[in-house]
Amino acid sequence: MVTFDQPVVAGKTITVGLKPFHNPTYEGIDQFRVQIVPSGKMTNNLVS
What we know:
This protein is 0% helix and 8% strand. It is built from no helices and two strands.
């Protein structure tokens, strides 16, 4: 989970580096799922 001290301004680009917990079984392209949730919104029974 990534949390910012200040809200991110609309239109600003943010880069977040991701890596797997273990090496994938097969070579190729790794896919990651990313979900963006505004502060205070509830999703999947979690409050950010």
